[in-house]
Amino acid sequence: MGKEVERKFLVTSTAWRELAEANIRILQFYLAAGPARTVRIRISDGGSAKLTLKFGSKARERDEFEYSIPLSEAVEMLDFAIGRVIEKTRHHVRHRGYLYEIDVFGGPLAGLVIAELETPEDVPDEMLPDWLGREVTGESKFYNASLALGGIPEIAA
Predict the structure, then answer these.
(1) Where are the beta strands (DSSP E) in 15-136?
(2) What is the pLDDT of residue 157?
(3) Model's pTM, two decimal places?
């Protein structure tokens, strides 16, 4: 088991693009979701798949279990997805020694760009990059499960 400690931010400019080290096409969908728990499948670049279980209701810290699964089984499980299938491209960007994962959403969520920062410690605001906008940690409407199961946040409309 690992602890996921993350912060989420809206992204307000494209200045990060020239710093991107990697980009991964992701299809992500949920098989189950309830208060303080989710079960999801993520297919990366059409070549690998992972099953992830998350537990907890704290805004910044949850228990996470992740397992590689056969791609063929992940594709089969698409039939059991609840809500919408999330399409996004994840970009890895380093800033001041920290790795930011920037998700550029497609499909019905096109226009939404969210950066995630997973660290065990708090990063002071003055250490954050200028291209980050408002912090949305704790705003459930910006969590992937909410994006799959709920409405589209106004910022993405």
Answers:
(1) 20-34, 37-44, 48-55, 61-69, 82-95, 98-105, 113-118, 132-135
(2) 46
(3) 0.91
Amino acid present at 38: T
Catalytic residue numbers read 30
Report the percent of the chain where pLDDT is more than 70: 95
Name residues whose C-beta falls within 8 Å of residue 34's C-beta, 6 or more positions apart in sequence: none
Residue 5 C-beta-side C-alpha neighbours within 13 Å: 6
Report, as ranges of residue numbers, the positions in the chain whose pLDDT lies below 50. 157
Residue 125 is predicted with a pLDDT of: 87
Residues 6+ apart with CB under 8 A from 18: none
- Residues sharing a CB contact under 8 Å with residue 124, sequence separation 6 or more, in sequence order: none
Strands 98-105 and 113-118 turn out to be antiparallel
Residue with tokens 């279990």: 65
